[in-house]
Specification:
- This protein is an all-alpha fold.
- Helix content is 76%, strand content 0%.
- It has 15 helices and no strands.
- α1 runs antiparallel to α7 and α12 packs antiparallel against α13.
- The longest helix has 29 residues.
- The chain starts with a helix and ends with a helix.
Length: 299
Amino acid sequence: MCFLIKLACFLLIAARVGYATINQLPEDKEEGSFESKLLILRNNQELPPDFWATATDPEKIDETLRILNALPESQKIRRGRMFGFLGYNYSKSSRYYEAIISLKHALCLLTEAESELKTFYLINKNESSYFLIKDLNKERGVVYSKLGLFSFSLGNYHEACRHLWNALDLLPHDRPSDAANLWSHLGVSYHKLGDHQNAINSMEQALILLPDDSSYAKGKVWGNLGIFHAELGNYPQAIDCLNESLGLFSGPESVHKKEQTRANLKKLYTHLGINYPIQQAQNGILDSLAELRIQQKSP
């Protein structure tokens, strides 16, 4: 009798959150990929096998909306993932307001589903529920990261900071480059809000996480750090950071960033009354920087 009651509870919650359909989903080729989670929906909707790979963004939006309209309200996980995919495709068309609305719907549905599964797990200690909860937790982290990046694109820096912190809290630590990208956007957001110290701290976290072969990304982060230090009056640190940035930019894709960094260095040297470029007065610059460091350390 007790077993039957537990089974009935399981079937009730499974029906509400779409548990029965989740086990059919293929393993993600990319963590947090909403598109990979739609393969089962694609099969159910009798679409051509290569539809999601070849369709235009407007076609994907139309098809996603059609599938959403056909899904029952009780299928919270599937609807949440569909809204996530819808937001992703809106963003690819630079329709960020619609993307954010869709992602907030996704977040609501996935959070509700996760809460119901947690209640079920506490009662039944079901292993499948436990792993599904972990998946949903990670997917919520992905949604928060997209919300943060899209809010950043719209200039809503307070919102961006809030969403990015939630993403960093929820996402696993197995993709350091992605985490570094979030820290970098968090740093620029803090800078836009006038919080220079948190901006610097965030950029330093990004540097720690970026792998050695990410020279372009590291160059951008060092460049931002240079600007942030300069605005705080930390001129020796600013020059060190900008020089680090300059040394990391190579190749045709870095030409613009390299020139931009040189311009920032020249502006800083001019402000300090030092000749530029450094090849023309190397010893004088080193002496001047040493003097600046001594002055900054003095009470």
